[in-house]
Amino acid sequence: MFVPVLLINMILLVITVLLIIADLLLVNYGECKVTIHEEDEAKEFTVEGGGFLLSSLTEPAIAINSSCAGKASCGYCKVKLLSGGGQILPTEDIFMSREEKLSGMRLACQVKIKEDLEIDIPDFLTTVRTIVKNKTYDPKLRWHLIKTGREGVLPEKRVTRLGKDEEQKLYAILDDFKETPGAVVPVLQRINETFNYLSEPALRFTAKSLHMPLSEVHRLATFYNAFSLQPRGRHIAKVCLGTACYVKGGEKILHSVMSKLGLTDGNTTEDLRYTVETVSCIGCCGQSPVMSVNGSIYGYLKPSMVDGILKRYS
Ligand code: FES
Ligand code: FES
Q: Domain 144-231 belongs to what topology?
C-alpha cells in the first residue's frame, strides 16, 4: 500500500517539475503592457512576460505593501485587477474576503504576467481611514474590509487639497532636502514643525515628491510619536499627571486648564490656539504640580495660577 502511494507522489512531483521547466523554457509570453491606476494617475510600462507582478512593480519603483517577500504568507500585496491576470489561485484565496474576490482583488506576488494587465493599487491611507471610521477592521482577517458591496473594497476617496500657501511651504521644505538622499523623516519633521501636524494632503504631496508609496510615508508618520495626524494648536500645554504631581493636585490643574480653554470634547481649541496634553513626568517632580507650555516649565501650581499662564500665549 505504502509503496504505490509513494510511487504516485514521485510521478506527480516529476510531472510538476517538468511542467515548471517547460513553462520556463518553452513558453514565451513576449512583452506585456502593465497599466497602473493609482490615485488620479495612470502609469504604463512594458515588461517581459513570465515574471510575477510584484517583482515587476518593484523594478519601476512602484513598491506596494509586502512583508513576506512574495511568499504569499502576509496577504498585504493586494491589487485590483481590472483586466488580465487569469483566475485567483488557492494560495490567494485565504487572504480575500468574498467582496474582494468579486471585485477582482489579487495578491500581486501570485499574479504571473502572461498578457497585458490593467491594475488598480488600493489607496492604503483611505482604506485604513475607512476601516477605523466604520470599525470594520477585524484583526483576524488582517486588513480585510468586511463591509458588503464593491464600495467596501475600494472606498471613495475624500477630496482633500492643499491650499496655495501650504503648497508653497511644502515646496520650500522639499527643496531644502533635495540633495539629501532618504530624507523622508527629516522632511516629515519639518512639515510637522511648520504646520503642527501632518495633514493628509501633505502626506500625499510628500509621497509623490519623494517617489515613495503613500503607505510607506503613512507608516512612518504613524510610527513616531512626535508626529501628529490631527491638527494641533500653536501652543502645546502639557499637564503632568505623574505620581508626584498627581498627589499634589495635578488633576485639579488639568481641570482648570480645560475649563479655562473651554475644552469639553477633544484637546485642541477650535481656534487652534492651544492643544492640551497630559504627560507622566516632566522631570521637575520637586516643583510639583507642574505644567509646561511650549517647553517653558511652570511649577508649584495652584488652579488659580492657570489663567495667568495661559494668557501669556496668544
Ligand atoms: S508579498 Fe506577501 S502575500 Fe504577496
Ligand atoms: S511627576 Fe510631575 S514632574 Fe515628575
A: Arc Repressor Mutant, subunit A (1.10.10)
Closest ligand, as measured to the CA of 254? 2
Instruction: Enumerate the domain spans of the chain.
Output: 31-134, 144-231, 235-311
With a 6 A CB cut-off, is 267 part of the ligand 1 pocket?
no
**In order along the chain (314 residues), what is the average pLDDT of each group of 10 residues?**
72 76 69 80 83 82 72 82 87 81 88 90 61 51 40 40 84 88 88 88 88 83 81 90 92 94 85 90 92 94 95 90
Ligand 2 environment, Cβ below 6 A: 240, 242-245, 281-285, 288, 290
C-alpha span between 171 and 198 (Å, rounded): 15
Instruction: Tell me the CA–centroid distance for residue 17 and ligand 1, in Å.
Output: 23
Q: HSE of 203 in the Cβ direction (CA atoms, 13 Å)?
A: 23
CATH fold, domain 31-134, is: Ubiquitin-like (UB roll) (3.10.20)
Distance between CA atoms of residues 269 and 296, nearest Å: 20
CATH superfamily of 235-311: Glutaredoxin (3.40.30.10)
Report how far ligand 1's centroid is from the alpha carbon of 77 (Å).
Answer: 5
Amino acid at 295: G
